[in-house]
Amino acid sequence: MTHHPHGSKEPQPYWNPYVAGIGLGLVLLAAFVIMGRGLGASGAFSSLVSGAVNTVAPQHAQGNAFYSDYLGDGTQSPLNDWLVFEVLGVFVGGFISGILAHRVNKTVERGPRISVTGRMAYAFVGGAILGVGAKMAKGCMSGQALTGGALLNLGSWATMLSIFAGAYALAYFMRRQWI
Amino acid sequence: MSAPFFKFGMFSEEVGLIFAFAIGIGFGFFLERAGFNSAKKLTAQFYFTDLTVFKVMFTAIVTAMIGLYYLSVIGLVDLSLVYLTSTNLIPQVVGGLLLGFGFVIGGYCPGTSCVAAATGRLDAVVYLAGIIAGIFFYGEIYPLIESFTQLTPMGTLTIPEYIGLPYGLVVFLVVLMALGGFAGAEWVEKYMAARKEE
Q1: pLDDT by residue (tens digit) across B60-110?
Q2: A32 in Cβ contact with B64 (< 8 Å)
Q3: pLDDT of residue A74
Q4: DSSP B95-148
Q5: Alpha carbon distances (Å) from A74 to A51, A67, A70, A80, B65
Q6: A121: burial class by Cβ within 10 Å (0-12, 13-18, 19+)?
Q7: How far apart are CA B52 and CA A109, in angstroms?
Q8: Residue B103, CA distances (Å) to A145, A177, B70 in order
Q9: CB distance from A36 to chain B under 8 Å?
């Protein structure tokens, strides 16, 4: 390993994708066996949004079928939720892995042909479109493609194929951002 | 038959939250190990130069699918107690297309953006703000689109049930498909690398 004079080390290469995939698959299997449910991500943000709307405008939130679904019977905070705790773990696990491999650094991921401001605008718009899609599809890549994929769930496979179709269909128009 | 442990009442919901946090740590760890904290690496999938997204995703699907299937065959796990989301085909196809658009425009999916934000990617922080805005927008328009989101209901339905083949056979076919996909992905990456050098 090369040592740098200022103490910062070179980022290590990522793992072989098949090895990382087996690790990810075993985590998913553990979730099935221990909890009887799979992984998720976007659901935690639905709880966060529903909780926030309920704090600012409780009548509005409780009269809306989408928010009230995440608010439950109102006896406990919507943040007291399995997916919220799981997503907190995702942040921690990602940080631990990144620190161990010297891959934590403040940066903006972008191709050579786009400005930082342009990249940030695309990031926000992309996130917003995905947020709508995740709710319509009843889950995102983790909840549908990965979890539902492993459970051979019909709707999940339809969602997964549509994700790839949508991304490939738009990739040409987004090429200035990435390559 | 004693699993899923939670469904057999082996621990409370509060203890389940501790498992949630621990499982999340494992999830985030392997996402980062795979390189999914990088939007450039993730989106390279859609330009055929780096097919890590496909390889990692299908290795994980096959691993969990085979593991769960065998644990159910030997009688440890009751498959019927593992939660399945119900299928609404049309809204899920439309939602999937939007997920794909958001992925290639924004550079991440929700899980990977958490890992990217945790490792300092500022674009991932903005992306997370976008997700929150998108979900808020969805919530606000939900009364208008509620009937659309409930179109083509098919209940909880697996592929083996839908096409009328035994579960184990579909597991086997998915494994074959994945192995073929991996071979194809390796070939495509080599082809693209060679083309770039010319």
Answers
A1: 999 999 999 999 999 999 999 999 999 999 999 999 999 999 999 999 999
A2: yes
A3: 80
A4: HHHHHHHHHHHHS--HHHHHHHHHTTBHHHHHHHHHHHHHHHHHHHHHHHHHHH
A5: 10, 12, 9, 11, 36
A6: middle
A7: 17
A8: 13, 13, 33
A9: yes
Question: A31 falls in which pLDDT band (50, 70, 90)?
Answer: very high
Stretch (H or E) spanning A20: helix A17-35
Residue B75: how many other CB atoms lie within 10 Å:
10
Percent composition of chain A: helix, strand, coil (DSSP 3-state, to 5): 70, 0, 30
Do the Cβ atoms of A29 and B117 come within 8 Å?
no
Burial class (CB in 10 A: 0-12, 13-18, 19+), B116: buried
Distance from CA of B180 to the nearest CA of A (A): 14
What pLDDT does residue B197 have? 84
ipTM of the complex: 0.97
Q: DSSP letters along B140-186, please?
A: HHHHHHHHHHTSSEEES-BHHHHHT--HHHHHHHHHHHHHHHHHHHH
Residues of A in contact with B193 (CB under 8 A): none
Give helix then strand counts, H and E, for chain B.
Answer: 8, 2
Per-residue pLDDT reduced to its tens digit, B17-56: 999 999 999 999 999 999 999 999 999 999 999 999 999 9
Do A30 and B26 make contact, defined as CB atoms within 8 angstroms? yes
SS3 B88: strand
Contacts with A31 from chain B: Cβ below 8 Å? 23
Among left, alpha and beta (phi > 0; psi -120 to 50; other), residue B28 is alpha
* Inter-chain contacts counted by CB atoms under 8 A, chains A and B: 533
Q: What is the pLDDT of residue A7?
A: 52
∠A69-A74-A78 over CA atoms, to 5°?
Answer: 65
As a whole-number percent, the residues of chain A with pLDDT over 70 amount to 96
- pTM of this prediction? 0.96
Rama region for B85: left / alpha / beta (φ>0; ψ in -120 to 50; rest): beta
Contact (Cβ atoms closer than 8 angstroms) between residue A34 and residue B24: no
What is the mean predicted confidence (pLDDT) over A78-93? 97
Residue A53: pLDDT over 90: yes
Over residues B126-135, mean pLDDT:
98
Share of chain A above pLDDT 90, in %: 92
